[in-house]
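Note to self: keep these together.
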Amino acid sequence: MKRRMILVCVIGMLLAAYTTEAAVEKDYAGIWQGILKAPGMEVRLVFKIDKAEGGGYTATWDSPDQGATDLPMDSVTVEDDTIVMVYKQAIEVRGTLQPDGEHMQVVFKQAGMEFPLELEKVDKVEEVKRPQTPHKPFPYREEEVSFENTGAGITLAGTLTLPQGEGPFPAALLITGSGAQDRDETIFNHKPFLVIADHLTRRGMAVLRVDDRGVGGTTGDLSESTTEDLAGDVLTGVSFLKDHQEIAPGRIGLIGHSEGGIIAPMAAARSEDVAFIVLMAGTGLTGEEILYMQSELIARAGGTSEEDIQKSLDEAKRIYSVLKS
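Structure:
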């Protein structure tokens, strides 16, 4: 009798353990956070999975470092022990719950590439810390400004920071990199141009930073603009600074980042009002050479074979040859 009771207890414990494990395996609800490590970058991702009425799950996802939050997943399904979440037919996330119920092994698929990702269940989304970002009150003055590029028929809007005290002050105009950028050149919630403007203005230099065409308060369409057009916008900004009563007209310079490092010398070559230029990650090669190099490096970092990389480069060379002629 005693032996039978022990056997029954053991079976009961095994059944309970099995039931608990099965329940854990199927419970994907919660906030899941992890770091996606892609070539050249690391991005924090957050998935918020909720149980749906009538069964199944719904989910949203965040990319906090890129400023994207609460993006709804188009579909959430469970296949065997794997949850599959799809976003706009462009991103697929396949996650398998670990035995502890607190971790999930994930394969993140986008643009034909796959990345492993480990998610951990958390109580709340960890706040992004940007200790380098300046916060008000500032020990200098800020002016919201706008001026016209009459030749292009657009209005440019930005922020002019002025040191305390009496001018006229030397000034720098910041020029953003490629793509539609705001005046702070915000990327992954970093604001490098705000940091630079703050640093220089605290040290006695006025700084003008401007929204790109079609961004913020600036009108126009960046997609229809050439680098030459953007150099014209910069020269409009130089004229604005030259006419400002608190700016020293002979001490105005340009600070360009990335494509801004191409635009700055173009603008300086067209104007005697530019006293200096600073190039951050500017180029030392022709645009064509840069495009070849970028394509090759990105493809190789993404795991593309050397044979396919060479085919892609050969095709690009044929296309550029046609464009140049």
